[in-house]
C-alpha cells in the first residue's frame, strides 16, 4: 500500500507502508521481479535445481546460497550500457537447516553435527563465495539472466584457486602444509559486501570467517593473540572434520588465509582472484572506492564486529584510465590507516605502518606482513576508536562526502566509571545498548580523501522516533513508515542520492516487528535526515547488495535468508522427515515442496525512468 506523497522531497516516489508478511513489496508504480534464485542453472549444461537431489557437482554449476553484495559491469566492456552486463553476486554463507530436507530430528531445535556428511560439507563449500552472471534487459523492459553466458562463472570455496598479493604474501604466518609457499589459497569465505574499482573489477569482503574454524587455540602458539582477537573458533560449520585447513590444530596458520578483500576481474573468466593483503585482515564488510583528485585510489572499509574499527587504504601509485593492466596492481601497495573520531568533530587517520609508533618488533610487528595479518591489534594499539559495528562505507559521487553505516551494538555499556573506557559511549558512538545503529558523515577537507584529518558528524541516529528511549534523530518529516533500524549496506545512485538497506538480524523487536528493506535517505537541504521506505523483504529476510545501473533505471537488490531470521519458526518447525518445513514463507516459489530461496530481485519503474525520481 502507498502512504502518500511528500512535497519537496528529493525522492518523489510514494512511500511504501511498513509491515511484515511472506512476500516482498515495492513502492507503487514499480516492479520488483525475481531475477535469479539459489540453485538456478548458470551454464548451458547445468542441471535444473532439485533440492531433494543436491550434490557438490550440481551446486558448482548453479547460483549459490545467501546472495549479498551485487555489482553491475556493463557489456560490452568499457561501454556505459545499462541494459546488458555482468552481475557479480556475493554468496555470504550457507544454512544447512534451511537447505537440506530432513536434517533436524524430531524434537530437536538444531541438527546434530554428525548429520552433516562430507557431501553436505562439499555442497556448502560449493554454495559459497560468488557468482558472475550475464544479465540482459529485453524489449519488454524485463530483465533476465543469460544461462550459458560466456562470462558466467562460479567462484567457490571448494575448488577456486586464489593468490595473495601485498605484504602478507609468502609471509611465514601464511605458510601451511597445504600451501607451503604462503602465496595461494582455495576459496573465499563469508563474502558480505564489496565495491567496484574504476578499472572494472569487483572487490569482495570476507567477513565472519571465525565461524568456519574448528579446534582449540594452543595458548602457547605465536598466533594465539591474533586468534583471540579475530578468529575465536566458534564452528558454525563442520568443514574442519573433512578439510584440514579449517582445523586450527592441524593448520595453525590456516585462518590467516581468510579475512581479506578479494579482487576479481569479471571480464576474464580465466583470471585468478587475488586476496589483497595490503588492505588488512579483519571482518571486512565492504569496500568504498574512489579516485582521489591526485589520482591515488582510496578504499574505505568497515570491520563489522562490536567495538571494531573503520579503515582507509590509499594507493601509492596513481590510477591511469588508459592502462588497465597497471591499475590491477594499484591495491598491492599503499598506506592502510584507521580512524580516530574525536569529540571536537575531527577524524584523524592513524597510519598502520610497521616501525611507526607502537608497531614495533617488541609489540609483535617485525614487518608490514605482521601489521596487516593482525590489523585489529595494530589498530587498537595506535588508538583507533572502537565503533558500533562498522558496515558499508560509501562515497557520495556528487558531493565527495563519505558515509559510514554503523549497524548496532547492544554490548556498549552505560557511561559509568567502573566500565572500561573502550566499552563506554564516545562522541561517535553516543548511545549505550545501541540496538538501532546510526550513520556518520565524514567530510574530507577540500575533497582530499588522502588527507590525514577529516571532519565528521552524525547524519542520523536510527530507531523508532515515536519511542523516546531510542533517542532516534530522524528529520521530523520522516513518517511512521520512514524510520529504520540497523543500517547495513548502502548505495548512491548517479544523482548522489543515498539508499540504505537494513539488517536487524533476528531482533525483530528493534524494528517493531516490521521487515528489513531499503529506504531512500535525504542528505542535503532542509529535509536532510529524512528517510522514506521503498522496498521491503519477506519475513525473516535481510536486504543486501543494492546496486544501480549507470542510468539509475534499474536497482538490483539481494534478498538474503528469507524465513530464517524468524528464529522461532525455524527451530520449532525444522526441516524434518525428508521435507522442507514452512519457515513463515516459501518465497519466492511458494510451492509446498520447495524451500525458501535467497534470490536477487530487480526493481524497475513501470513505464521506464529513474528509480525514485
Ligand atoms: Fe554480513 Fe556485516 O553484514
Ligand atoms: Ca552486510
Ligand atoms: Ca549485517
Ligand atoms: Ca542476517
Characterize this entry briefly.
It contains 8 helices and 29 strands. With 613 residues, the chain is mainly β.
Describe this structure in words.
- The chain is mostly beta strands and 613 residues long.
- The chain is built from 8 helices and 29 strands.
- It has helices spanning 56-59, 96-99, 118-126, 224-230, 324-327, 368-373, 375-381, 567-573; strands at residues 25-26, 30-37, 67-74, 84-91, 129-137, 143-145, 153-155, 161-165, 184-186, 191-196, 202-206, 261-264, 274-276, 288-291, 296-302, 310-318, 334-341, 346-351, 390-395, 402-406, 438-443, 453-461, 487-492, 498-502, 517-521, 531-536, 542-548, 554-560, 599-605.
- Strands 14-15-16-17-18-22-21-20-19 form a 9-stranded antiparallel sheet, with no helix packed on it. The chain has a 6-stranded mixed sheet with strand order 9-8-13-12-11-10, with no helix packed on it. A 5-stranded antiparallel sheet has the order 1-26-25-24-23, with no helix packed on it.
- The protein binds MU-OXO-diiron and calcium ion (3 copies).
- The site of one calcium ion has 5 residues, from loops.
Q: What's the arrangement of secondary structure elements?
A:
Elements: E1 25-26, E2 30-37, H1 56-59, E3 67-74, E4 84-91, H2 96-99, H3 118-126, E5 129-137, E6 143-145, E7 153-155, E8 161-165, E9 184-186, E10 191-196, E11 202-206, H4 224-230, E12 261-264, E13 274-276, E14 288-291, E15 296-302, E16 310-318, H5 324-327, E17 334-341, E18 346-351, H6 368-373, H7 375-381, E19 390-395, E20 402-406, E21 438-443, E22 453-461, E23 487-492, E24 498-502, E25 517-521, E26 531-536, E27 542-548, E28 554-560, H8 567-573, E29 599-605
Parallel strand pairs: 8-13
Antiparallel strand pairs: 1-26, 2-29, 3-4, 4-5, 5-6, 5-7, 8-9, 10-11, 11-12, 12-13, 14-15, 15-16, 16-17, 17-18, 18-22, 19-20, 20-21, 21-22, 23-24, 24-25, 25-26, 27-28, 28-29
Bound molecules: MU-OXO-diiron (FEO) and calcium ion (3 copies).
The site of one calcium ion has 8 residues, from strand 10 and strand 23.
